[in-house]
Design brief:
The chain has helices spanning 2-17, 22-33, 38-43, 53-90, 109-123, 137-140, 175-189, 229-244, 297-302, 319-327, 340-343, and strands spanning 127-128, 134-135, 166-167, 193-202, 214-224, 250-254, 260-269, 286-295, 311-318. It is α+β, with helices and mostly antiparallel strands and 350 residues long. It is elongated. The protein binds 3,4-dihydroxyphenylalanine.
Amino acid sequence: MKEKLEAIRKQAEAELDGLTSPEQIESFRVAVLGKKGELTSILKMMGKLSAEERPVMGQLANDVRAFIEEKITEKSKEIKEKEMQKEIDSMPIFDVSAPSDLSRGSYHPITLVQRECENVFKSMGFAVENYSEIVTDYECFEALNIPKHHPARDMQDTYYLENGQLLKSHTSAAQNAIYKKYRDSLINDGLPIKAIFPGRCFRNEATDACHENTFFQMEGVMVDKDISISNLIYFMKTMLSEVFRKDIKVRLRPGFFPFVEPGFELDISCLICGGEGCPSCKHSGWLELCPCGMIHPEVLKAGGIDPEEYTGFAFGLGLTRLAMMKYGVKDIRDLNSGSLKSLSQFTDDE
Ligand code: DAH
């Protein structure tokens, strides 16, 4: 039996050497170690051995089995590595210096409109501020004169985080921080607060061609002594005429927002018909574009500014809406689609 076991070990080693695929290895394993395999059939004969011989042969048989198993593992690893190398070798070589046949990327239409607005406001002395997308309930609502349980919260179905913070539902959420940042230079140095803060906003909207759960706004504020509605109209009219590259007529209608008093809806003369009336403006000649108003005294107070001494205006421009108007985008969902076919149409502008 000893010779037989040794012979199996030698033969197994030699056979394994010539194997080249995982399938071959598996049939080899079954043929030698399987239930009906060579080694197993020898083990079945153990019973016929004498009591002294049995443990010795048993030990040897186990050694042979362990030896063969180890060889199988080694060989499988070797074959796998060879196969992987073969696959790597068959891959086309990536040449970093080869000229690209991909077309150039393009700016997103919202980025284009945002930059245009920023440039116009910068030229009028406004600072451009960046603000977090995650804010506190205080910043988004309380500091804007919207206490807990105020019905105005219903207008913005908000995404709350587990830690009590939230995804900002409007760029107005940055107002409080902006007032606090600039109030010292306003009060001590007499420098007016003039800032815009574009940003992404989130609301739990049912999406359709006009509604998205993620959209962009651009908030703007100006605070100084004797700021009036005339200042608001002037800045908005100038900015919109620049962005649309034609003289834009604006009008104000009353609108309610808890953080402004009085509050307005700012309409612009229809871009399609110039105010004559057409299906795009529902034959009114006007398009609703930008809610705005005079900053509420409570909001100034929350920002550490005395409303008896200072006044200001604020507006919340819908950047997404503006981009749709400017570029004639009919479905808001195209803007977040990542579809290069839709988005790359706007490259020419830059
Ligand atoms: N934050 C408001 C919204 O998203 C829009 C808004 C209204 C902003 C009036 C303002 C404002 O600054 O004065 O619904």
